[in-house]
Amino acid sequence: MSTRDFTLDQLRAALQRPLPGLAAQIRLAPEYRLASLRSDPPADARRAGVLILLYPHGGEWRFPLMKRVEDGLVHSGQISLPGGSQENGESLRDTALREACEEIGAPCAEVEILGELTTIYIPPSNFLVTPTVGCMNVRPDFRCDPR
Fold first, then answer.
1. Domain count, the chain
2. pLDDT tens, position by position, 27-53
3. Strand residue runs (E) in 4-145
4. Residue 147 in domain
5. Is residue 140 part of a domain?
6. Is residue 1 part of a domain?
7. CA-to-CA distance for 55 and 82, rounded, in angstroms?
8. Cβ distance 127 to 45 under 8 Å?
9. Which residue range forms the structural domain that includes residue 115?
10. Can you spell out the DSSP letters for 54-107?
């Protein structure tokens, strides 16, 4: 998407308004996910945070994705946003920033947080994932964790 299509101020304002939440998740979900989206997540679901890190590059907004290592675990080899499990006493925003720093070398102190998207339950790993939207004025110098 072109940097002319929306400004960060417009995105920041949009993230402060009520989000479409579950209705949007259902509209975009594959058929096999509909039942789990409409059900309450289990009480023992773990919390996780991921970061959508927007940055301008060549006149377009971009954000990094990563490929999970092929380790035989539940999300092995999948394409994902940087993120992971919330630690005790940590906000989900802090989780998203910490994990992005660890996994892709994002300079967390330089990330401006714009807001959050609706939390979504991921059944295979039993995670409640909250996406945080952040931005930088320049493309970060990514340093990916080989794990």
1. 1
2. 998 999 999 889 999 999 999 999 999
3. 46-57, 60-62, 66-67, 79-80, 83-85, 112-116, 120-122, 127-135
4. no
5. no
6. no
7. 15
8. yes
9. 8-135
10. EEEETTEEE---EEPP-SSSTTTT-EE-SEEEPPTT--HHHHHHHHHHHHH---
